[in-house]
Amino acid sequence: MGLIDTLKGFVTPAPTTGGEVARPQIGASYMRGGRGVAFQRWNPALRESQQDIGDAWDGVAARVTDMIHNSGWISGMIDQSVANTVGTGLRLKAIPDFEALGMDQKWAADWSKRVERRFNNWANNPQECDVRGIQKFGQMQASAFRAWIGTGEILMEHPFRKRPWNQYGTKVRVLPPSRLSRMSDDTRRIVNGVKIDMDGMPVGYMAIKVNEMGMRYEQLIRARDRLGRPRVTHIFDGLPGTHRGISVMAPVLQVARQFDQLADATLVSAIVQTLFAATITGDEPTEETLEGLLTPQEKAAAMQAGVSPLEAYMQLTEGFYDAAGPLNLGMNGRLGFLFPGQQLTFHSSTHKSEDYEKFANFLLREIARCLGMTYESATGDNVGATYSSLQAATTEIFAVTKYRRENVLQPFNQPIYETWLEEDIEQGGTDFPGGIEGFIANRTAATRSEWRGDPRPRADDLKTAKAHETWKRMGVMSDAQICNDLGYDVEDTYQQLAQEMDMRANTYKLPEPALMLPSGGAAEKNKDGSTKEDGASGNSDD
After folding, report:
1. pLDDT tier at 483, thresholds 50, 70, 90
2. How many CB atoms lie within 10 A of CB 306?
3. For 170-192, how does the pLDDT look when each residue is reduced to its tens digit (9 = 90+)?
4. What range does the domain containing 487 cover?
5. How many domains does the chain have?
6. pLDDT value at residue 490
């Protein structure tokens, strides 16, 4: 008997309409052919991502904003995520393509240093970079990243405002993404407020504005001017075919809500456990039982008022609930004398909350993962963490940080830098081959750059330094790579070291610090000025 014949024996044949027995269908379909319990009533519609975003954008953005306003955990996690990704602001590293510009490497190094210095002067002055004159460029990066977390989008304008005290007219205005309309009009090629051309490239945006009467209206703003310079920049990270983004917290909204509900339920349980309920069982009539609960003073007051013990007890109960609160903590307590045969039983809550911390941490881990953070960084809880676990976690999660810097913050920073550089070259602040015409003709080569942030967090600086030393001695890691790993620029480091060396030698007449070798001993000088380890032969190759 073959395998198929064996399987047929386990299936009860069902008669067909013609009286014949139907053979069972054997296959290996996905999702168990739709017959699995997990897939019953789970039939989502398959649509383009833009349709889902358009339907859910308002609700998701509103719920995330509410969470940020009312959840200390969520607000704190977002603060930490901003600190990890943006820090004090990504720093410009100009890397012009000097070969395409017909220049040499020395020119590129000198030109880059000058541009970086002048750009930093502009970026650190709110009156120069912010059209409102409030935030530095680094603060605007943080504001833009917060908007991206909450809505999945960054929206900004590039106005030109040169006030009498300004050196530059290039300004930036970061806008809330809710200012972008969600209307769609296929006849005008408008998708959720974004006007596109035949190729799907955004050419304009439907902005929501308010007139002097407080009335809201929509106005089309062109994405670029006639020379191709950006007027409005809209940044998001989505699937193919999308023109709007959505918050990265959309998948964990339910989890964040469950965390709040869990905290509320646990708190109520803890409060209930401090209260009690009591029942009296006995053979005596109810009126005599209630009389046994009254104090002598309360019995005398009831007799003077001419009311029964039941009425007196009900009046006391009513007065109890009419008081300031359900618990009268001003009364230290009293004794209740019950009749023979009566029993007073106290009941307490039986709800158990021993697993609260375990389940709450599980929810927090999911939220932290969605925000691109480690659990330890998101919560500040390092209990049970080791150097190896922290090192592995930060290494993996830092890849998410680098991705967001490259695909969320870099598109925010780069057009601002290009606009500023064009103005600086045009007004003669920065020299460029061919002047402003040469810059416009070679904009891509001239504005090539990197935006560097804080380095990957290190669990143990000493072990990191030892690793760098080992790689350096093996000849597979350069000073530039070490500086990049530490978040520094190698040229800035060399320049600072040279300045300090000159200051020690010429200004303060201080000796050079001893160079420590792996063995721990100080380096000795050979006759030719080279160094050797204590006890070494003096051969520089040893």
Report:
1. confident
2. 7
3. 999 999 999 999 999 999 999 99
4. 460-529
5. 3
6. 85
pLDDT band at residue 449, thresholds of 50, 70 and 90?
Answer: very high
Phi, psi angle pair for 193, to nearest 5°: 90, 0
Q: 506 and 444, same structural domain?
A: no
103 with 156, same domain: the answer is yes
Structure tokens at 179: 């200012």
- DSSP secondary structure letter of residue 42: -
Same domain? For 148 and 290 the reply is no
For 339-343, which contacts have Cβ atoms below 8 Å and span 24 or more sequence positions?
Answer: 339/282, 339/284, 339/288, 339/289, 339/292, 341/282, 341/283, 341/284, 342/280, 342/281, 342/282, 342/283, 342/284, 342/289, 342/292, 343/280, 343/281, 343/282
DSSP H or E segment with residue 347:
strand 343-347
The pLDDT-based confidence of 29 (bands split at 50, 70, 90) is confident
Q: Which residues contact 461 (CB under 8 A, 6 or more apart)?
A: none
Give 230-271 pLDDT, tens digit per residue.
Answer: 999 999 998 898 999 999 999 999 999 998 888 888 887 777
Q: Specify whether 483 is located in the same domain as 443.
A: no
Question: Which candidate, 76, 138, 112, places its Cα nearest to that of 447?
Answer: 112
| Residue 158 DSSP SS3 | coil
Does residue 157 belong to any structural domain of this protein? yes
pLDDT band at 8 (very low <50, low <70, confident <90, very high): low
Q: Is residue 390 domain-resident?
A: no
pLDDT at 372 over 60: yes
Nearest to 256 by CA among 56, 75, 67: 67
Contact residues for 194 (Cβ-Cβ < 8 A; gap 6+): 180, 202, 204, 205, 206, 234, 243, 244
Specify if 20 maps to a domain.
Answer: no
Determine the pLDDT at residue 460.
Answer: 76
Is 228 inside any structural domain?
yes
Could you identify the residue written with the tokens 């990191």?
Answer: 464
Do residues 227 and 192 share a domain? yes
CB 153 within 8 A of CB 238: no
Residues 441 and 482 in one domain: no
15/11 Cα distance (integer angstroms): 13
Distance CA 243, CA 237 (A): 9
Nearest to 54 by CA among 248, 261, 242: 242
The model's pLDDT over 199-227, given as tens digits with 9 standing for 90+, comes to 999 999 999 988 888 888 899 999 999 88
